[in-house]
Write a structure and sequence with these properties.
Shape: globular
Oligomer: single chain
Strand order of the largest sheet: 2-3-1-4
Strand content: 15-25%
Structural class: alpha+beta
Number of helices: 7
Number of strands: 4
Largest sheet: 4 strands, antiparallel
CATH class: Alpha Beta
Length: 174
Amino acid sequence: MREHICLMSAAPSSQDPRRFAASVLANIIGDDSGSRLYWALIDTALADSADMDCDSMDGTGALFTYISCDPAKAEQVMGIVRECFRKVQAEGVTEAELTASKNKIASSLTLSGELPMGRLVPLGFNWIYRQEYRSQAEDLATVQGITGEDIRKLLAEYPLDRITVVGFGPSEKI
């Protein structure tokens, strides 16, 4: 028996160029290795899974965080998550985190471009949502150009403390 916790907050839409910064932020906070949630929850064995993803959609976007943990630890885990979000909101991200995240995303973009579907899916979404063609090189340059200031501005408009939380499991309070 596990506690499954889902958190959701607003993020830039697919039409908003800040979607790239939101993806970098989500990677820093909740990538499945080396992120803030990884070190705070997975490395310490407080949770089985803890990740954050940005989903930029047509006209809207969302940051989704998913956590799976022992029900007895759910309240503690949520305290750590809220503190992580508070700290990022107040202090921003470090240059080391920013560089590591941009490099992870750039590697992923490059590897996905090696497959036909990895090239065609972004092409289709770019055309459907923005009626534009963006090359993989343009996306890579955009990601590499994201700064700490871009993340601070993003957090000012899309604060991490405005979240919806849903828990599935035996815990009565999370």
